[in-house]
Design brief:
Blueprint lengths: L1 E4 L8 H7 L5 E4 L14 H6 L3 E5 H6 L11 E3 L1 H10 L3 E3 L1
Parallel strand pairs: 1-2, 1-5, 2-3, 3-4
Keywords: Cytoplasm, tRNA processing
Organism: Buchnera aphidicola str. USDA (Myzus persicae)
Protein name: Protein TusB
C-alpha cells in the first residue's frame, strides 16, 4: 500500500498512520506532510522505526526552504517518481 501524507503531522493522528505501516508499504510525504521529515521532530523516531520505505517530495521540501533539515532516512523524489509509486501500489491511503 502507498500511504501519502499531505497534511502537517501535527494536524492528524500520526501515531495511527505509523501503526498502519507494513514492510511492503511505501510512505510518501508531500505538501505540508514533508514536515515529518524534519530532523529532530517528535515524530521522526517512530516513522523511521516503521518497516515502510520512506519517501519525500523534493519540490515541496525546497518550496518550504527546509532541504538542509531533512532526515537522511527519507529518500527525496520528484513528482515523476510519485507517479511510479502510484502505479506500483493498487491500494493507496491518503492522510
Amino acid at each position: 500500500m502507498l500511504h501519502t501524507l499531505m497534511k502537517s503531522p501535527f494536524e492528524i493522528n500520526i501515531d495511527l498512520v505509523i501503526s498502519m505501516l507494513r514492510t511492503s508499504d511505501d510512505f510518501l510525504a508531500l505538501q505540508d506532510g514533508v514536515l515529518i521529515g524534519l530532523k529532530d521532530n517528535i515524530f521522526l523516531k517512530n516513522i523511521v522505526m516503521s518497516s515502510a520505505k520512506l519517501y519525500i517530495i523534493k519540490e515541496d521540501v525546497y518550496a518550504r526552504g527546509i532541504h538542509k533539515n531533512i532526515s537522511s532516512k527519507f529518500i527525496l523524489i520528484s513528482y515523476i517518481h510519485f507517479v511510479s509509486l502510484t502505479l506500483k501500489h493498487q491500494k493507496q491511503m491518503a492522510w
